[in-house]
Amino acid sequence: MKPGDRLFDNIDRAIHESKVGVAVFSPRYCESYFCLHELALLMETKKRVIPIFCDVKPSQLHVKDNGLCPGKDLQRFTYALEEAKYTVGLTFDTIEGDWSQFLTTAMDAVVHNLIEVDAEETHKHRGYFMKNY
């Protein structure tokens, strides 16, 4: 992105074009409208999401209503967060964890999920082609 680009347009387009999303949850994640919007869009577009819980437990994550967020967005965000909390993810403790080892584990998880998504898409396309041939 470059200065003058519309942030949401670029983020939304990138999410629509992605195959796998990675959500890195921190203790202050739910305070960010941008983070919650991205998570909601990942869930709404049915992308595979790999949650990473960094210094936070899933049970500690809650959407907070500060009175500035429209009710429709609060519902979207709450739904997306609940979906993410019940998705198998990775955890990392920044004080005791080994960054190098964790990054390797996270990278392996992303690559594995990309391979699975590609295989599922190929299988769906083959099935569609065979039915309509």
TrEMBL record:
Pfam families: TIR_2 (PF13676). One of its GO terms (biological process) is signal transduction. SUPFAM superfamilies: Toll/Interleukin receptor TIR domain (SSF52200). Residues 1-85 form the TIR domain. InterPro entries: TIR_dom, Toll_tir_struct_dom_sf. It comes from the Eukaryota. PANTHER family: COP1-INTERACTING PROTEIN-RELATED (PTHR31008), TOLL-INTERLEUKIN-RESISTANCE (TIR) DOMAIN FAMILY PROTEIN (PTHR31008:SF40). This is TIR domain-containing protein. The lineage of its organism: Eukaryota, Viridiplantae, Streptophyta, Embryophyta, Tracheophyta.
